[in-house]
Write a structure and sequence with these properties.
single chain; 343 residues; alpha/beta; six-stranded parallel sheet; three-stranded parallel sheet; 15% strand
Length: 343
């Protein structure tokens, strides 16, 4: 319909199973005529470019394909003041925190396999697991089988407002995801001063410096190795939670993310609008079957839009006029931060 559109992608998908093939084909049709695409990591960008076929012929070399220039990478962020480190751990107990949806793609099978080994190798270790999902039953069975009721605490669903209090219970954050575009939970844990251990998947290696995180392949033995190294590192006092918090504050902030996002939208608004014929030409490139179907849908949408313009002209519509007061917004934001700090 010619409406300026920016698509933001937060996920990674595969290419092999039937569901992914169908989803990717729908994505190709959806992204053919969007004005810009924003991804949260470079790995996510590569995945979206391949799934959405966001490439075109190089004008200087017709045999070469190049990625479209309107695909951007803007990471997630967080409010660092909401994830301050807790009081120092004065006991010998090493608490490992896991906050995740308890599903297969989050690697809960790896957690089920490695948690008993870690508990057996390190008597001072305990687990705090927050989250809900179909794999909860596997965790319960593992805890019963190995008699670890006093070593593994299952919290169930955790509200986002309670995440900081859960993170304050631990010194190590464990992530066993099998696929992850960015991993905001990792960022929150690092900001709260926890040392992070994660599987090396997706965009996770882009989040933190190497000295703040240990990586493992999505394999039981390698996860156990990485966790053992992290436990020894934390026990030796080689990780400073407050320093980690200060570093994350300099890495991520919403003001920078908002500025970069605003530039993308501003570029879209200032760019030439794509003509109907060009949108139809791009849509027909979907193939001998999908191309005509998507093109017919496009034409029907445009005809319906013209009918609405005739039936209810935009000149007769009432528009809401609102003047954006930047100073007032800054004052309200500062008050909100102050309330968060006081609480």
């Amino acid at each position: 319909m010619g409406i300026r559109t920016v698509f933001t992608d937060h996920s990674l998908f595969g290419f092999e199973d039937a569901a992914s093939i169908l989803t990717n084909k729908l994505l190709v049709g959806t992204l053919k005529n969007v004005d810009a695409v924003i991804c949260v990591s470079h790995t996510g960008r590569e995945n979206t470019v391949l799934r959405g076929e966001l490439f075109e012929t190089d004008p200087s070399n017709p045999t070469k394909l190049v990625v479209r220039e309107n695909v951007y990478v803007i990471p997630n962020s967080l409010v660092a003041e909401s994830f301050k480190p807790g009081p120092p751990n004065l006991s010998d107990t090493i608490t490992i925190v896991v906050l995740s949806r308890l599903a297969y793609r989050k690697g809960i099978d790896l957690l089920v396999a490695t948690a008993p080994r870690i508990c057996a190798a390190f008597p001072e270790v305990r687990f705090v697991v927050g989250g809900d999902g179909p794999k909860l039953i596997d965790l319960l069975q593992m805890r019963e089988k190995h008699l670890l009721q006093d070593r593994i605490e299952l919290l169930g669903p955790v509200r986002h407002s309670d995440v900081q209090s859960v993170l304050h219970q631990g010194v190590i954050f464990m992530n066993t995801s099998l696929t992850e575009s960015f991993g905001i939970a990792i960022l929150e844990a690092a900001c709260a001063g926890l040392y992070v251990v994660s599987t090396r998947v997706g965009g996770v290696p882009e989040i933190l410096p190497k000295d703040m995180i240990s990586f493992a392949e999505p394999d039981e033995d390698d996860v156990f190795r990485a966790m053992s190294e992290a436990i020894n590192l934390v026990s030796a006092g080689k990780h400073d939670p407050q320093k980690a918090h200060e570093r994350v504050k300099t890495f991520y902030n919403w003001e920078d993310v908002a500025t970069r996002t605003e530039k993308v939208y501003d570029a879209v608004v200032k760019s030439p609008q794509m003509e109907l014929w060009e949108r139809m030409r791009r849509t027909m490139q979907l193939g001998p079957f999908a191309g005509p179907i998507y093109t017919i849908i496009l034409i029907v949408d445009c005809l319906f839009f013209l009918f609405l313009e005739w039936w209810m002209p935009r000149e007769d519509l009432d528009y809401v006029n609102f003047h954006w007061n930047t100073k007032k917004f800054v004052q309200l934001a500062q008050k909100g931060r102050q309330r968060t700090a006081d609480s």
